[in-house]
Amino acid sequence: MEGLPGYCLTFGRPESGRLAAYGLILFAGMSCLNVWKGYEAKRSGENKEEKKKGISYGLKVLFLAGMYCFCILLLKPGPVNGLEAVFLDVGQGDGILLRAGRSVVLVDGGSSSKKSLGKYSLEPCLKSMGVPVIQYAFISHGDQDHLSGVAYLLESSEDIKIENLMLPHHGREDEAIKRLEELARRRGTKVKYVAGGDGVQVEGLRITCLYPGKEDRPETTNEESEVLKMDYGNCRMLFTGDMEERGEGQLLERTGEKRMLAEVNVLKVAHHGSKYSSGEAFLDAIKPRWAVVSYGIGNSYGHPHQEVLDRLEERGTEVFKTGEGGAIKMWTDGERIRFESFVD
Q: How do residues 264-276 score in pLDDT, each as one tens digit?
């Protein structure tokens, strides 16, 4: 059966209304078959019953097949209304899942504290949401806490497909990035290296790389981090990877990029809340209304550093933390924005 197309269907976790409808359909179907059985029992004449037995059995098979197909259509997940962003609880690492309509974009997906993140967290999460295909997977830079789960999906997951892998332009020589590219090509996934000015658009969701450009010369792996700006209506998010203050300063020196930073209202705090990122000048340029910090509780780095939390508080930014709230979910229709945490 596994050799047949469509042998595995990823429908996710149906909401209570669909489960109730599914139960009613099964109950109605079984009731119909029971009534059918009673009707056949009343038919007189053994020869007549034998004659119609084959026809009756065939009709039952068609009836059950129809029920089966109808239930598949009933349980198939519909498109997401608006934009849903889930900042996954990956421990000490990053992983952001964006869904708009039927399109899915993953920004990073790794952890240094959860060794089997891909197998026990990332893949089950995607399946529970009914996500069999990721249209674009962005990897900010070559650290394991940003890519280990994506590597698992490319190497070992049979049910989750990544169509396009977007890698950092300045990470071409990193061994981890090279391995990821090799895994992607084996799976038939398209690979593209992303630099400042590149971008993609799916179903009203636009993602643009602001930094670093091809002409920049990052000195460390963290400085290679893609800085991605996401636009969906009036909701604008900024994903910063592990960018440090040096990169923030270079980004602020560019007039066009600085203007785009001023539009941001949701910030994914850089480097898990490290004090060497999210400098005062950078936060003053953005003035985010909301911020999300992704980190593992009790990590050895002391993330998030209190200095960063104080800077955000001074600017009136509401901060959500995966270490305390678990996965952070944001929904927007392009005008309104709503946040909720898994641990509410």
A: 999 999 999 999 9
CB 213 within 8 Å of CB 188: no
Three-class DSSP category at 60: helix
Angle among Cα 217, 146, 96 to the nearest 5 degrees reads: 110
Quick one: which of 19, 13, 8 has its CA closest to 127? 13
- The torsion defined by the Cα of 156, 79, 294 and 149, in degrees rounded to 10, comes to 0
What count of residues does the chain have? 344
Q: Is the separation of the CB atoms in 232 and 205 below 8 Å?
A: yes
Question: What single letter denotes the amino acid at residue 1?
Answer: M
246-292 pLDDT per residue, tens: 999 999 998 788 889 999 999 999 999 999 999 999 999 999 999 99
Q: What is the DSSP string of 206-241?
A: EEEEEE--TT---SSTGGG--EEEEEETTEEEEE-T
